[in-house]
Design a protein that fits this description.
Immunoglobulin-like, seven-stranded mixed beta sheet, four-stranded mixed beta sheet
Length: about 300
Protein backbone atom coordinates (compact mmCIF):
# COMPACT_ATOMS: atom_id res chain seq x y z
CA UNK A 1 0.00 0.00 0.00
CA UNK A 2 1.30 3.39 -0.90
CA UNK A 3 0.93 6.18 1.57
CA UNK A 4 -0.49 9.28 0.07
CA UNK A 5 0.85 12.15 2.13
CA UNK A 6 0.18 15.53 0.88
CA UNK A 7 2.94 18.09 1.02
CA UNK A 8 2.90 19.93 4.38
CA UNK A 9 1.20 17.17 6.33
CA UNK A 10 4.40 16.05 8.13
CA UNK A 11 5.14 19.39 9.78
CA UNK A 12 1.81 19.76 11.61
CA UNK A 13 2.21 16.18 12.87
CA UNK A 14 5.60 16.97 14.47
CA UNK A 15 4.19 20.14 15.97
CA UNK A 16 1.47 18.10 17.59
CA UNK A 17 4.03 15.67 19.00
CA UNK A 18 6.21 18.51 20.37
CA UNK A 19 3.23 20.16 22.02
CA UNK A 20 2.31 16.87 23.66
CA UNK A 21 5.87 16.37 24.94
CA UNK A 22 6.01 19.88 26.33
CA UNK A 23 2.66 19.44 28.02
CA UNK A 24 3.82 16.21 29.64
CA UNK A 25 7.04 17.87 30.81
CA UNK A 26 5.15 20.71 32.41
CA UNK A 27 2.81 18.23 34.08
CA UNK A 28 5.73 16.26 35.52
CA UNK A 29 7.36 19.50 36.68
CA UNK A 30 4.20 20.56 38.51
CA UNK A 31 3.88 17.13 40.11
CA UNK A 32 7.57 17.13 41.13
CA UNK A 33 7.26 20.56 42.67
CA UNK A 34 4.15 19.53 44.56
CA UNK A 35 5.83 16.40 45.89
CA UNK A 36 8.89 18.48 46.84
CA UNK A 37 6.76 20.87 48.82
CA UNK A 38 5.16 18.00 50.66
CA UNK A 39 8.45 16.19 51.39
CA UNK A 40 10.61 19.25 52.20
CA UNK A 41 11.72 19.33 55.88
CA UNK A 42 10.17 22.34 57.57
CA UNK A 43 10.16 21.08 61.15
CA UNK A 44 12.92 22.56 63.38
CA UNK A 45 14.77 20.57 66.04
CA UNK A 46 13.72 20.55 69.69
CA UNK A 47 16.07 21.70 72.45
CA UNK A 48 15.95 19.92 75.79
CA UNK A 49 17.54 20.66 79.17
CA UNK A 50 18.10 18.18 81.97
CA UNK A 51 15.73 20.14 84.22
CA UNK A 52 18.33 20.65 86.93
CA UNK A 53 18.83 24.18 88.34
CA UNK A 54 21.55 25.84 86.27
CA UNK A 55 24.28 27.82 88.00
CA UNK A 56 27.65 28.91 86.67
CA UNK A 57 30.53 31.20 87.50
CA UNK A 58 30.85 34.54 85.75
CA UNK A 59 34.10 33.13 84.37
CA UNK A 60 32.33 30.23 82.62
CA UNK A 61 32.72 30.02 78.86
CA UNK A 62 30.03 29.12 76.32
CA UNK A 63 30.95 25.44 76.45
CA UNK A 64 30.06 25.41 80.16
CA UNK A 65 26.63 26.89 79.46
CA UNK A 66 25.90 23.96 77.11
CA UNK A 67 26.16 21.47 79.98
CA UNK A 68 22.92 19.51 80.35
CA UNK A 69 21.47 20.79 77.05
CA UNK A 70 20.75 18.63 73.98
CA UNK A 71 18.89 18.97 70.68
CA UNK A 72 17.01 16.38 68.59
CA UNK A 73 15.39 16.51 65.16
CA UNK A 74 12.66 14.28 63.71
CA UNK A 75 14.75 13.60 60.59
CA UNK A 76 18.37 14.46 61.40
CA UNK A 77 18.26 12.77 64.79
CA UNK A 78 20.69 14.01 67.44
CA UNK A 79 21.81 17.53 66.47
CA UNK A 80 23.30 18.47 69.84
CA UNK A 81 26.57 19.27 68.09
CA UNK A 82 24.83 22.17 66.35
CA UNK A 83 23.93 23.86 69.64
CA UNK A 84 25.29 27.36 70.19
CA UNK A 85 24.84 29.94 72.93
CA UNK A 86 23.24 32.86 71.15
CA UNK A 87 23.24 35.29 74.07
CA UNK A 88 23.66 35.71 77.81
CA UNK A 89 21.65 38.76 78.75
CA UNK A 90 19.53 40.29 81.49
CA UNK A 91 19.84 40.27 85.26
CA UNK A 92 16.89 40.13 87.65
CA UNK A 93 16.72 40.87 91.37
CA UNK A 94 17.36 37.19 92.16
CA UNK A 95 20.70 37.25 90.37
CA UNK A 96 19.45 35.22 87.41
CA UNK A 97 20.42 35.90 83.83
CA UNK A 98 18.82 34.52 80.66
CA UNK A 99 20.80 32.23 78.38
CA UNK A 100 19.40 31.73 74.86
CA UNK A 101 20.39 28.63 72.87
CA UNK A 102 19.99 27.90 69.14
CA UNK A 103 20.17 24.60 67.23
CA UNK A 104 19.69 23.67 63.57
CA UNK A 105 19.11 20.55 61.46
CA UNK A 106 20.42 19.38 58.08
CA UNK A 107 17.65 21.28 56.27
CA UNK A 108 18.68 24.53 57.90
CA UNK A 109 15.70 24.78 60.25
CA UNK A 110 16.59 26.72 63.40
CA UNK A 111 15.03 26.61 66.85
CA UNK A 112 15.76 28.57 70.02
CA UNK A 113 15.28 28.06 73.74
CA UNK A 114 15.88 30.40 76.70
CA UNK A 115 16.42 29.42 80.32
CA UNK A 116 17.32 31.20 83.53
CA UNK A 117 20.81 30.69 84.90
CA UNK A 118 22.25 31.81 88.22
CA UNK A 119 25.69 33.42 88.09
CA UNK A 120 26.94 32.36 91.50
CA UNK A 121 29.75 34.90 91.91
CA UNK A 122 28.22 37.83 90.08
CA UNK A 123 28.38 41.32 91.54
CA UNK A 124 27.06 44.47 89.93
CA UNK A 125 29.53 46.96 88.42
CA UNK A 126 31.26 49.09 91.06
CA UNK A 127 32.18 52.74 90.98
CA UNK A 128 35.38 54.37 92.22
CA UNK A 129 36.89 57.86 91.99
CA UNK A 130 40.36 58.98 90.95
CA UNK A 131 39.90 62.21 92.90
CA UNK A 132 37.45 63.94 95.17
CA UNK A 133 34.59 65.55 93.29
CA UNK A 134 35.58 68.86 94.86
CA UNK A 135 36.87 71.62 92.59
CA UNK A 136 37.94 75.24 92.78
CA UNK A 137 35.70 77.72 91.01
CA UNK A 138 37.22 78.81 87.73
CA UNK A 139 39.48 75.77 87.45
CA UNK A 140 39.40 73.22 84.65
CA UNK A 141 38.04 69.80 85.63
CA UNK A 142 36.54 66.64 84.12
CA UNK A 143 33.92 65.07 86.36
CA UNK A 144 33.20 62.03 84.17
CA UNK A 145 36.92 61.45 83.70
CA UNK A 146 37.30 61.09 87.47
CA UNK A 147 34.74 58.28 87.66
CA UNK A 148 35.86 54.68 87.23
CA UNK A 149 33.77 51.52 86.96
CA UNK A 150 34.97 47.94 87.26
CA UNK A 151 32.89 44.89 86.36
CA UNK A 152 33.42 41.17 87.02
CA UNK A 153 32.37 40.35 83.45
CA UNK A 154 33.59 43.23 81.29
CA UNK A 155 36.47 44.60 83.34
CA UNK A 156 36.90 48.36 82.96
CA UNK A 157 33.64 50.11 81.99
CA UNK A 158 34.84 53.64 82.72
CA UNK A 159 34.50 54.80 79.11
CA UNK A 160 30.83 53.82 79.09
CA UNK A 161 29.83 55.98 82.05
CA UNK A 162 27.02 58.47 81.39
CA UNK A 163 26.29 61.45 83.62
CA UNK A 164 23.21 63.60 84.19
CA UNK A 165 23.16 66.70 86.38
CA UNK A 166 20.08 66.66 88.60
CA UNK A 167 20.40 70.10 90.19
CA UNK A 168 18.80 73.24 88.77
CA UNK A 169 22.11 75.00 88.08
CA UNK A 170 22.73 76.06 84.50
CA UNK A 171 26.28 74.73 84.66
CA UNK A 172 28.18 72.29 86.82
CA UNK A 173 30.96 74.90 86.99
CA UNK A 174 28.80 77.20 89.13
CA UNK A 175 29.70 77.56 92.80
CA UNK A 176 27.78 75.25 95.07
CA UNK A 177 27.04 71.55 95.36
CA UNK A 178 25.42 69.80 92.42
CA UNK A 179 23.92 66.33 92.39
CA UNK A 180 25.02 64.26 89.42
CA UNK A 181 23.75 60.82 88.49
CA UNK A 182 26.37 58.46 87.06
CA UNK A 183 25.18 55.26 85.36
CA UNK A 184 26.62 52.41 83.35
CA UNK A 185 25.39 49.17 81.73
CA UNK A 186 27.47 46.03 81.32
CA UNK A 187 27.30 43.47 78.50
CA UNK A 188 24.55 41.40 80.13
CA UNK A 189 22.32 44.46 80.47
CA UNK A 190 22.74 45.15 84.18
CA UNK A 191 22.49 48.91 84.71
CA UNK A 192 23.74 50.50 87.92
CA UNK A 193 23.64 54.14 88.91
CA UNK A 194 24.67 56.34 91.79
CA UNK A 195 23.98 59.98 92.61
CA UNK A 196 27.08 61.82 93.84
CA UNK A 197 27.60 65.41 95.00
CA UNK A 198 29.97 67.56 92.96
CA UNK A 199 31.18 70.53 94.97
CA UNK A 200 32.51 73.78 93.47
CA UNK A 201 34.03 76.00 96.17
CA UNK A 202 35.24 79.61 95.97
CA UNK A 203 38.66 80.02 94.38
CA UNK A 204 40.25 81.37 97.58
CA UNK A 205 38.56 78.99 100.05
CA UNK A 206 41.52 76.63 100.55
CA UNK A 207 45.27 77.11 100.38
CA UNK A 208 46.44 73.50 100.72
CA UNK A 209 45.47 70.13 99.32
CA UNK A 210 44.27 67.20 101.42
CA UNK A 211 44.59 63.72 99.88
CA UNK A 212 42.91 60.40 100.65
CA UNK A 213 43.90 56.85 99.77
CA UNK A 214 40.45 56.42 98.17
CA UNK A 215 37.64 58.82 97.36
CA UNK A 216 34.77 56.37 97.04
CA UNK A 217 34.51 53.18 99.09
CA UNK A 218 31.96 50.45 99.66
CA UNK A 219 31.37 49.86 103.36
CA UNK A 220 30.66 46.38 104.62
CA UNK A 221 27.19 46.30 106.22
CA UNK A 222 27.46 45.87 109.96
CA UNK A 223 31.23 46.44 110.07
CA UNK A 224 32.66 49.45 111.93
CA UNK A 225 33.77 52.29 109.67
CA UNK A 226 36.81 54.49 110.42
CA UNK A 227 36.90 57.62 108.22
CA UNK A 228 40.36 58.72 109.42
CA UNK A 229 41.91 55.52 108.07
CA UNK A 230 41.57 56.95 104.55
CA UNK A 231 43.66 60.07 105.16
CA UNK A 232 46.82 60.09 103.06
CA UNK A 233 48.66 63.42 103.01
CA UNK A 234 48.51 67.19 103.49
CA UNK A 235 50.35 69.38 101.00
CA UNK A 236 51.11 73.09 101.37
CA UNK A 237 53.32 74.55 98.67
CA UNK A 238 56.37 72.22 98.51
CA UNK A 239 55.74 70.67 101.94
CA UNK A 240 54.06 67.27 102.07
CA UNK A 241 52.99 65.80 105.40
CA UNK A 242 52.02 62.12 105.56
CA UNK A 243 48.79 61.33 107.42
CA UNK A 244 48.81 57.57 106.91
CA UNK A 245 50.06 56.57 110.33
CA UNK A 246 49.17 59.51 112.54
CA UNK A 247 47.96 63.08 112.64
CA UNK A 248 50.94 65.35 113.38
CA UNK A 249 50.96 67.52 116.46
CA UNK A 250 49.61 70.95 115.77
CA UNK A 251 47.31 69.90 112.95
CA UNK A 252 43.66 70.75 113.43
CA UNK A 253 41.55 68.06 111.76
CA UNK A 254 37.80 68.22 111.36
CA UNK A 255 35.84 65.22 110.11
CA UNK A 256 32.17 65.89 109.41
CA UNK A 257 29.52 63.37 108.44
CA UNK A 258 28.68 59.86 109.54
CA UNK A 259 27.97 56.47 108.02
CA UNK A 260 25.19 54.15 109.15
CA UNK A 261 26.54 50.77 108.17
CA UNK A 262 23.14 49.21 108.88
CA UNK A 263 21.31 51.45 106.44
CA UNK A 264 21.98 51.15 102.68
CA UNK A 265 22.67 54.45 100.99
CA UNK A 266 25.26 56.95 99.81
CA UNK A 267 27.08 58.94 102.49
CA UNK A 268 29.74 61.64 102.42
CA UNK A 269 32.53 62.45 104.85
CA UNK A 270 34.08 65.94 104.69
CA UNK A 271 37.63 66.52 105.95
CA UNK A 272 39.15 69.89 106.78
CA UNK A 273 42.76 70.17 107.99
CA UNK A 274 44.64 73.27 109.18
CA UNK A 275 48.38 73.16 109.63
CA UNK A 276 51.21 75.65 110.08
CA UNK A 277 54.10 75.50 107.62
CA UNK A 278 57.00 77.95 107.99
CA UNK A 279 54.90 80.20 110.18
CA UNK A 280 51.89 80.37 107.85
CA UNK A 281 48.63 78.47 108.41
CA UNK A 282 47.27 76.52 105.45
CA UNK A 283 43.87 74.89 105.07
CA UNK A 284 43.05 71.81 103.01
CA UNK A 285 39.69 70.23 102.27
CA UNK A 286 38.46 67.02 100.63
CA UNK A 287 35.56 64.60 100.61
CA UNK A 288 35.02 60.83 100.80
CA UNK A 289 31.95 59.08 99.35
CA UNK A 290 30.81 55.96 101.20
CA UNK A 291 28.30 53.50 99.72
CA UNK A 292 26.58 51.01 101.99
CA UNK A 293 25.19 48.23 99.85
CA UNK A 294 21.94 46.33 100.11
CA UNK A 295 22.25 42.66 99.19
CA UNK A 296 25.57 43.10 97.42
CA UNK A 297 24.41 45.74 94.92
CA UNK A 298 24.13 49.50 94.90
Amino acid sequence: MKLNLKRGTLIPMWCTICIAVIACSLLFAVIYAAVGRVSRDRVPPVIYTDGAPASFSVHADYADFLEGVRAEDDRSGDVTSSLVVESVYGMNESGETTVTYAAFDAAGNVTKLSRSVVLTDYTAPRFSLDEALVYKYGSSFDVIGAVRVSDVIDGDLSKKVKATMLSDASSIAEEGTHEVQFRVTNSIGDTVSVVLPVEIHPADAYTASLSLSQYLVYAVPGQAFDPESYLSSFRARATVVSLKDRIPAGMQLSVEGSVDVEQPGVYQICYTARYSVDGAVYTGYTKLIVIVEDGGNV
